[in-house]
Amino acid sequence: MKAFENHVYLIGYVISNVIAVAMLWAALKNIRLVRLLFFMLFAWASWTNATIAANRPEVYLEYADLTFIESYRNFIQGWFSEHIELTVGFVAFCQALIAVAMVLRGHMLRIGAIGAIIFLLAIMPLGVGSGFPTTLIMAVAMFIVLKSKNENYLWKKSA
Fold it and tell me: Of 52, 155, 48, 149, which is closest to residue 106 (Cα–Cα)?
């Protein structure tokens, strides 16, 4: 893969996949822990995306070279290239909502988990840019959260 010629991508790719496997393991062992990890991940992603979109939006155009799906490349180089701040700002807002949902319970937790799964699957075609298969592994971990019987707020242990 051409992207792996850049060592920064390679290091990020390896780290993101190790983290994804660790999150899947955590989902199987401790739902509260993986919810906390997802809270931290989506809160960080929200802040990062909002900051970069506001200060250096052109960075997101690099994803066009990393995707393996032509329609994603065309979208990034087309409409998205003219609306980066708006689009990434909306994504950052949704990521913040997902983060908040991870500390809640019931329907809000489920809605956040479904939103996270959709998001994680939607960015898979960004290839190395999304750390593929990182997002697929994380989507499976989030599916475990979605199906879990943990109905408490994150800060409350199950009875």
Answer: 149
Question: What was the pLDDT predicted at 3?
Answer: 58
Chain segment 70-97, per-residue pLDDT in tens? 999 999 999 999 999 999 999 999 999 9
CA angle 73/81/62 to nearest 5° reads 55
| Mean pLDDT of the region 101-128 | 95
H or E stretch including 65? none
Mean pLDDT (whole number) for 38-55: 98
Residue 130 tokens read as 């999304």
Collect all residues with Cβ–Cβ distance below 8 Å to 14 and sequence separation of at least 6: none
Residues 67-72: contacts with CB under 8 Å, at least 24 apart: 67/125, 67/126, 67/127, 67/129, 68/125, 68/127, 69/125, 72/125, 72/126
Give the Cα separation of 96 and 122 in Å (integer).
17
Which helix (H) or strand (E) segment holds residue 153: the answer is none
